[in-house]
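call fold(seq) -> tokens
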Amino acid sequence: MSAWAIRLLFVLTIGALVGCKKGEGSRLSFQTVGRQPDVAPVMLNKELPFRYPPALYAQKVQGNVTLRIFIDSNGAIVPDSTRIAETSGFTALDSAAMKGSRELKFEPAKTLGQPVPVSIILPVYFRHPDAPPLAGDSIIKRDSVAAKVDTTTAKQPARKTSQSKK
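ret:
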């Protein structure tokens, strides 16, 4: 077994056994799991890739999905590593969070200046602007990157009227 594979296995094992620490130093609200790097990974996406499911948006359904994501030492999400750590209770919201997570890009975590793989816990909040706050929303920072979910693609298209069929 290569040294990298042993190191990866060690990080995954420790991640399962040790508690979490808030990922400070980045604009992303998340927690690293396991052995703590000196520098947390930093999300590079300018906009979050999470898309509110149109049917749930129309119904003003809201929820929180908590993802567990493994980021390799290059800052890439390891394929098939993402898991739902805590479900929203809505399959469509959970699926939207999982799908969006594939597009996340990171600057890798670092220990002693060297990039290292890390597992993170990432909350994804789906909030409708016209729906009442959910219980506990007072603790969600309104300017938190993780709290902003793109709803532009979820808005229903304008209905055609007889005047628009010209």
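The radius of gyration is 18 Å.
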